[in-house]
Amino acid sequence: MIKINVKHENRVTHKTECLIVFCAETAKPEGDLKKTDSLLKGAVARAMKDKRFEGKLNQTLLIDTLGTVAANHILLAGVGKKEELNLNKLFQASGSAAKRAEKAKCKKIACAPLDSSLSKKLGAKKSSAYDPASQAVAEGLHLSLYRFEVYKTKKKGDPEPVRVKDAVLLAASAGAAAGMKRGAGRAKIVADATAFTRDLQCHPGNTATPSFLARQAQAMAKSAGLKCRIVSPPEMQKLGMGALLGVGRGSAEPSKLILLEYSGGKKGQAPVALVGKGITFDTGGISLKPPPNMHEMKMDMSGGAAVIGALQAVAGLKLPVNVVGIIPAAENMPGSRAIKPGDILTSLSGKTIEVLNTDAEGRLVLSDALTYAARFKPRAIVDLATLTGAVLHCLGHHASAVVGSDQDLMDQLIQSGEKTGERVWQLPLWEEYESAIKSDVADLKNIAGPAVMAGTIMGGAFLKAFVDDVPWAHVDIAGVAWGDEKPCAPKGASGYGVRLLVNFLENAR
Ligand code: BES
Ligand code: MN
Ligand code: ZN
To answer: Is 275 helix (H, G, I), strand (E, B) or coil?
Structure first.
C-alpha cells in the first residue's frame, strides 16, 4: 500500500515527479488549470485544441513541464462531463492517473486540489467530518496500484520495477486539510480491506483451504477487534448441518463454518447478517466441471472473502452497526466419499435436499449458513456468492444480480452499487420459479432439471426456502468477482463486495 499524505501547499511550488490534475470535459483550460497552463506556455491548451486530451473519463495526458513549475510532469486526468461527475468517476479517474504515472516510472506523485466547480458537483459539505472526494481519490490511488506477487520469486540481478510509493493530496487551504486527511484515512481502511479480499481470492486452492480461510479470518478478527468463532465438522455434525457437511465429504480438507461478530451498534440492536459462499475450490464434484477454465474456480470463495474484508473495513471505520459474518467454507471434490447425484441430504433446517448435480454446491453450503444466520435474530440477511455461471450470460462482468424477499433491502443494495460503482441489478423471483425445485423424493432438489433455464434465479429460489420472515437479499457475484483489468482493479480478483457492503452498512436503515 502506498503512503498518502495531505499537505497545504501550492501546486506550482510543490516538488513532485508527477502532479495529477483532474479535469472535466472541456475545449480549453478553465479555472485553476488556466493559470497552470500559462506557466506551461500553453501546452495544455494546445493538447485540448488538437484533441489529444478532451477530459473524457479515464483519459490521461502526461506533459513534461520542462522546469516551468516545481513538478517534473503534469498529468491531466479526465473525469468526464462536469454535470455527470460523481465520486465513483473521481475514484476511477484517480486510478487511471496512478497507473499512468507508474507507467511513466514516477515514484512520487501528487494530486492538485479539485477545482471548486468540480467539488461543488460532488456536494462536499464543509461541515462534514471528512472529505468524500479525498476518500475517492485516495481509494483510487491505492486500489489501482494493487498487485498480487506472493508467488513470484525474484532472481538476483533482476531490475527492481519502479513503483509509485508516495502520494500527496494538496489542500487548497489549511482549513480543508483536516477533512481531507480524514477522507484519506478512511480510504486506507477500505483499500486495505479490499486488498485483503483480493489476496484471499488470488491464493490458489492448495494454499487457500477452508482451514486457511478460517485462520485468516481469525487473525483479522484479532487485529481488528472482532469476535471470531470457527465451527468444525464434529460440531457441524451435532448441529445437523448435513448440506454443508455433504459438500465437503469428497475432500480431505475439513470444512469450516467461520463466524465473525462486530458490535459497533447499540447493545441489543438486531445485527445485519452477511453470508458469503466460501468454496475454496470447485471442481464440480462427481458432476465434474470441464477442464478449460477449472483453475479459475479457486475464486469460488469470493463471497466469503468479501464478507471477511467488509467486516475488517466496518471495524476499522467504527461504523455504528452490529454485523455478523457467516462463511460456510468447503472444498468441492470428487472422491470415494463424495456425494453423488441422487443423494439426499438433511439440512440444518430439517428440509431434505435431493442433490441432482454436485456442481450446484454453493446453494447447499449456503442453505445451512442461512438457517444458522437466523440464530442471530438479524434484521436483514445479505448473502454474496459466486453461485451461477448463468449470471455471466445475463450481465457479463459489469454487475452482480440480486434477488430477494424484501424490495427495500434490494433497493438499498442497488443504490450502494450505483454510488460505489460495484453495480447490482435485480432479477425477478416469482413464485413459479420456486415450484421448479420441488423434488419427487425429497423436499427440494438442488437444480430444476437438466435444461438450465434462468439459472441465476433458480439458485435464488432454492436459497429462499431457507429464509423465514427476515428481509433477505441474495447477490450473485459470479460475473464480477473475477474479471478484466479496470481502472482500479487488476485483471483477475476484483475484491467486489467490500466497498458495496461498507456503503450499504453506512446507510443501513
Ligand atoms: N461456482 C460455480 C459458479 C461459477 C461459474 C462461478 C463461473 C464463477 C464463474 C457454481 O458452483 C456452479 O458450478 N454453478 C453451476 C450451477 C448448475 C449446476 C445449476 C453453473 O453455473 O453451471
Ligand atoms: Mn459448482
Ligand atoms: Zn461453486
So the answer is: strand
The pLDDT of residue 508 is: 85
What's the Cα-to-Cα distance from 106 to each of 60, 79, 380, 493, rounded to whole Å? 15, 21, 46, 25
390 C-alpha vs ligand 1 centroid, how far in Å? 8
Quick check: helix, strand or coil at residue 60? strand
Taking 70 as the threshold, does the pLDDT of residue 55 lie above it? yes
What pairing do the DSSP bridges indicate for beta strands 492-493 and 482-483? antiparallel
Nearest-angstrom CA–CA distance, 75 and 63: 6
- Beta-sheet pairing, 400-404 with 166-171: unpaired
The 10s digit of each residue's pLDDT in 298-346 is 999 999 999 999 999 999 999 999 999 999 999 999 999 999 999 999 9
Q: What are the residues whose beta carbon lies below 5 Å from ligand 3 (ion)?
A: 279, 282, 300, 362
**Amino acid in position 111:** C
Place of cell 466497498: 499
Considering the entire predicted model, what is its pTM? Answer: 0.98
Give Rg (Cα) of the chain.
24
Q: What mean pLDDT is reported for the chain?
A: 97
CB 333 within 8 A of CB 247: no
Q: Is the pLDDT of residue 160 over 90?
A: no
Distance CA 438, CA 351 (A): 11
Instruction: Judge contact between 486 and 140, C-beta under 8 A.
Output: no
Among 118, 161, 164, 123, smallest CA distance to 140 is for 164
CA of 488 to the centre of ligand 1 (A): 26
Please name each of the domains of the chain with its CATH number: 3-155+162-180 (3.40.220.10), 196-507 (3.40.630.10)
Determine the residue type at 222.
Answer: K
